[in-house]
Amino acid sequence: MLRVGRATAEDDEQRWHAQRVIEFLRIHPWRHTLVGKLSYGLQKRVELARALAAEPRLLLLD
């Protein structure tokens, strides 16, 4: 569902957190690139960023 209207403080906080994860993993130069166009290694970093963006208490990696 598409939400219309002003961004809430929660939206701003989520956006800020996502930006920190992107910068931490050094994928910010490719933030507007489709994942399918990225190298395998960068695709894996994007997967990790998605996992970290959810702020899990525990993250199991293989």
TrEMBL record:
Gene3D superfamilies given in the database record: P-loop containing nucleotide triphosphate hydrolases (3.40.50.300)
Pfam families: ABC_tran (PF00005)
GO molecular function: ATP binding; ATP hydrolysis activity
Signal peptide span: none
The protein, known as: Branched-chain amino acid ABC transporter, ATP-binding protein
SUPFAM superfamilies: P-loop containing nucleoside triphosphate hydrolases
Top-level taxon: Bacteria
InterPro entries, per database record: ABC_transporter-like_ATP-bd, P-loop_NTPase
The entry's keywords: ATP-binding, Nucleotide-binding
Organism: Pseudomonas syringae pv. maculicola
Ranges for domain ABC transporter: 7-62
